[in-house]
Amino acid sequence: MPSAVPHDRALSRDRVGQLFYARGRLTQPGRSRGVEAGMRIEFPRAHSRAIPWLREDVAALLLRLVVLITALLPRIIQLGMFVTVDEADHWIERSTTFLAALRSGDLAATAITSHPGVITMWLGSAGIVLHELALQAHLAQDTFAARLALMQLPVALANALGVMVGYALLRRLLPAHTAFLAALLWAADPFLIAYSRVLHVDALTSTFVTLSFLAACVYWNHTPQRRTLVLSGVFAGMGLLCKSPALVLFPAVGLLALSARTPRRAVGALAVWGLAAAATAALLWPALLVEPMRVVELVASGVTDNGAVPHANGNFFLGQATDAPGLLFYPVVLAMRTTPITLVGLLLLPWAWRDLAHHRRRDMAALALLVLLVLLALSIFAKKHNRYLVPAFPAVDVLAAVGLAGALARISLRRVRQAAAAALVAAAALNLAFWHPYSIASFNQLLGGAQAGADDFLVGWGEGLEQVAAWLNEQPDSQGAWVATTLKSPLAAYLRPGMHVMQPNLDMPEKIRYVVVYVRNAQGGPPAPPFDRYYQYGTPAHTVSIHGVPYAWIYQVQPQITTASGASFGDALALRGFSLDVGDAGAVALKLAWQTTRAGQSDYAAFVHVLGPDGQRYAQLDPQLATGGLGVGRFLTSELPFSLPADAPAGTYRVLLGTYDPATGQRLALGGAQAADPALDGGETLLLTTFTKSGG
Q1: Percent of the chain scored above 90 by pLDDT?
Q2: pTM of this prediction exceeds 0.85
């Protein structure tokens, strides 16, 4: 068995102080240039032994603070802003069911899904309790967005804390500045951030798989302390409770152990590791204690049945609709989901590899093996999505950091090296800010960015539909409106009370006022009927874009009318048609369908005068037309029920229509139809229709 490599910081402070006064700097002999040059820590000259240590401690604290802020803020800011499909359809309900099972003591009922998603449901349950407490203390609103934000918060905090724990482990594997850069790239990775702030399983799986493997590297390649081995096993157990791809840890850790020890000695340590993982799973999943066989069968079904079947709604890859994207899928995902910084770092890694010490080469080879195993394991299954590769990305970021650190270490001028390092940190921060809050839409800008991502992969998980809801909520005809959409639940969550949403099949119901087509339903061809005709031939009333990519198209449905009209009023309004129904006892229902012909600068008003056979006015209506701010081609509907007086004479009644500017009272010029006799009701008036009131 090779001797364990001592921790880089294992030297006592007294010994470091001796080295400091002897040479003014600390070096580790026997290290080559490049990345290992980063092992050298230079101290300023000082007369007090306390000052250098104070400065070193303050610097270390500041680095930890930078990593913490970078990991925390983008993961918690604007939580609840939008809800993903899986959150709305599954994880909110699953967390609610999980909490109810815990409160009732029905431990078997905590076996809910084959993912198994246990950690996600624990954290979601904690968020529900937080919301309940916040409501009692009047610190939160009783809204969907507020509840969702507090359910997402524990997940975001867990993932941010995972970065900090990872940073501590990285400091035991890498030189201090390389470890800082690795943790920073991990914390600022927009792909990881995107899934770290939703109530789901992928980012949590990524966090625990990475922490388990980093701790395993510390144990087998550096300091073989039993507590580190147990910690790795605990994280492995938590990863397994998130999602089944964490099973990749078994071959990864097994190969790591066998490469560091003889098989006989490796087996004993692996047994401890496995027991720690199993004990953690049993303690955190109550159902595993009371019905272990059912739980095992449930999880196994998720691997063999769910993963082996392509997405029910199909997939999309490299511009083509497909059920099974093939083996090329995840390598392309890996490239596209990197950042420009990490991509450059990965390209520099072979160059830096030559300068790595042997034990660090072992660490980097192990991390590369983990990435490869994740790629291979996911590629086996027909069901593929780019977010499934999230567990590989912390390791990718660490490898990229080593490549970048190697390049920085080769810069001989200290100020230039420091400026380059500062530029890297700034670039990572700017890239993070660029994608926030829609980091879920992030793709490598060097490879085409968000547009290339939408051209190559199925995108759209609910993001942007909150913008659709905000736009619909502001429309003058939104109250009571029905909306048809290709993706229902993420939109319905943010619509104002009184609005309704549905997902029709084949035929569009007459009651629909707006149609929403979402990006994922229009990739690879037009959406399914009845949405296809709007997407192909309609003009959107509004389009929601994210980073320049259209994500949702909103179409306004032309009102159903019985009589068409070509009349126009000024250059702002056109009457597309009307319906008139005469009921018993003089009750009349009039419906007017308008369309804007230019962008509205102000609101207008209409007047409807009903003249009897004797020329007298028996009814008058003055509907307001909220055209201000509307674009060209927008529809407005005026529902105008009225009743004739009981003593109104029998005979033919004329319905006259006109429009005017309420600010000036000036009537808008009538066009496209012959005006009625001005003697009847003034100028610029349209004789809309007539109806007959019978006698008796």
Answers
A1: 79
A2: yes
